[in-house]
Every structure is written in structure tokens, then in C-alpha cells.
Amino acid sequence: MNNPVIPQGMWRRRNASAPWPGLLRFYVTVHLIWIAMYITLGKGFAYAGYQPLFVGELLAVVGTGVMAFSGRILDLARTKIGVVMTGFIVWQAWCTFPFLAEYQVDTLRDGVLWEYAIFAWITASMILRLPGLIDSLVSSYAGFLRSYVFVGPAMWLASVFLQQDLPHWPGTSVSIPSIKAGEYCVHMAGAFAFINVGIRRMSRWWLIAVFGLAFLGMNGRGGLLAFLSACGFILFIRPSWKHLFLIAGSFALLILGMMAFEIRIATPKESRELSVDQLYHSVTSAVAGSDNTLLEGTRTWRLAWWSKIWDYTVNGEFFWTGKGYGINLADDDEFQVGTRDEPLRSPHSSHVTFLARSGVPGFLLWLTLQTTWAGSLLISHLRARRRAEHNWAMLFAWILAYWVAFTVSAAFDVFLEGPMAGIPFWSLIGFGWGAHYLFQMRIRLEREMCISTSGVTV
Questions:
Q1: Where exactly are the structural domains of the chain?
Q2: pTM for this entry
């Protein structure tokens, strides 16, 4: 018989009378280390292991067994998010497994776009099973953040400027570390949101440092837009004039300094530089046109490919199941720009990839899952604010802001298709899912107790 789910009132307290089983404690520790390594080293950590069993797949296999041991799968499946998640996974599997015989490993590799959803179930089940886990996760992130503010930018700069001098995985061009601008900006957005909401007390100077250092990734327009979107969301949901003025002043000084000294830093890894002009073109080209030939060219290329996908799915023969998982979309759609050793496989938008590979139903299920999850957390945030439960309200605000950064960056890049962003993203989904479940259950139990003590038969 399963143990009852223990609702966490003030999630910053741990129930000392309910010790964690050793196996679950070990798995949670490993999962956190894996997330930290993906955030810090990017692709440089993802390549650890032997094809096709890399560290991400190993974690998924072990985590699936641990999830079954937790006994919380049915509790999650009965929730609104669980129902939509199940439908989403079933449809994606329907668009994947028929192609397994033809494309084999390529099918499984492309399928990680949805297969990593297992980490949402794993993370949520651990939160329901282990009392005090939310507090442990928040504390662990706060400790990690104090190091990441310095280590993260250093790893990013090293992967950009020192790529040729860094160690590489044998037989590949992947350096250690190897981080994309989008990944870097998304995680800096998560750091900014965490400090701003005040879940853990941290100096305002940390906020300024994170905001300034995030602009090292200004040559990646998708990542930069993701960072700015998350900042805008968190300042909207938790207005702070003091923080707004500090950030605006810091940003103005940064821009004026770069303009006054005409700072232009060429990046050997990419054809874009770090400069005020690049910052301007990165932002404007993401939402409109740009007179920068390179940026406008890549923008036109993306829009043309997305338009073709729209035509053969929404208006064409691949309406129901798309082209499936396994086929190289860049080759089949005639938009290949990758190298022979590392060919491009999917369009530069994870959202559009769902449309291309699983058709209109799969794309709508993806959108429904994201809106259901985000709407549920937003409702919990608003309820927590009305009940003056600061810890819960700020927890949901931070998770939502981090999610905003992930989804915006995923709109402009091959982002969720790899473990570097996919595993942290789906783990964040599970974190929010589990926290929402516990908070709503706590409210329901309090209401039942109130009715019971008032003499009304329940």
C-alpha cells in the first residue's frame, strides 16, 4: 500500500520524522549534479558516455525505475496536467515508433524532443514522495547560483574564445565546455528571476551582476530575447521600482561604456561580434527586419523553412502525423546548412519541430500541455498571493519566469532537441507540476478540515 502524499505547508521546513529512502536520496543527488553539469558545461557534458547510451539516457533509465518505486505515478496521472501529458506522449509515440525500423537510432535521437518528458514525471513524483524536497532543491539552487554567477560566464567565454585550446571529445568537434548563447542566456534568466523574487535573501548587487553578465550572450538573438522576456515577466508579476531603476541604470552604463570606448569583440566561433550594434540588430531582427545582411539572411531562411512546414502540415498531406521522427527534415525539406559530420536535422524552432514531426494534432497537444501547465502554476501563484504565502507565491513566479526563458529560446533555435536544454527544461516542468500539486492539495485539505470542524458532515 502506498504511503499518503504529505502536503508541505511551509515548504521551507523539512519533516524530520519522514527520512528519505537511501535509493531516492542517491538518485536526487545524481539528478541535481547532472543538471548542474548541463548548465555549466553544455554539450561538453552531454557527450559523456558511449553511443547510444550517454549520461542523459543513463539518468533517464535509472530515473524511470526510481519513479516506479516512488508509487506516485497514478496520483500525477489523475491531475489535469497529467491527463494532457499522457495524451501528448501517446501521440508523439504514435508518430515515432512506426519509423523505428527504417531509421533506427536516428528515430530515438530525434524522439528525445518528447522522450525527455519522462524527467517531468520523475521530478514530480520525487517531490510528492519526499517531504521537504522543494526546500532542498531551492537551497541547492541558491548555493549553486553563488558559484554559477562566476563560473557560468567563464565557461561561456571559454567555449566561444578558447574552443580550439580546450579538450575535445575523441572523434568529435565538441569541446569541454561547449555552450550555446541560448543556453547561457536562459540560465542567466533563471538566476535573475531567482534573485529578484527573493526566495533566498541575496544582495541586489547579485541582481546587477547577473543582468550585466547575461549580455555577454548578446550575439545570440534568441537567447537574448529569452533573457529579456523572462526579466520582463518577473518584473511584471512582482514589480520592484528599486530593482527596475538599478537594472535600467546598469544597462545604460553598460551601453554608454561600450559606445564611448567603441568596444567590439570578434568571436572566433561565430561570425557575429560582441558590440552595441550587434545587440541592436539581435533584438530588432528577432521581432522585425534588420539591415544586417547576415542576420536578415538567417531570418529569411528560417521563415521560408517554417512556411514550407506549415504548407505540408496545416495545408498538406502531413496534417495528422507530420513526417515523423527519424527522417532528417533539413535534407528532406531541402534546407540543409550543417556540415557532413554534424548535419542539421530539425528547423531552428523546437515548437515548429513538433508541427513538422507530429502534425497538427501533435503541435496542438504540445501547446495545450504548455498552456495547461503554465496556467495551473499561475493560478497557484495568484492564490498564494491572496493567502499571503510569500514562499509559495515566489516559488511559482520563479519557475514561470524560467519557463518563459526556455520557451522563447526554443522558438528560435534547435533547443529542446538535445539533453543540454531538454533535460533541465522537462525537470523544471516536473518541479512546477509537483509543487502545484502539493500546494493545491494543501488548500483542499485545509478546506475539508475547516468544514469538518464547523460541524458540517463531509
A1: 22-249+304-445
A2: 0.88
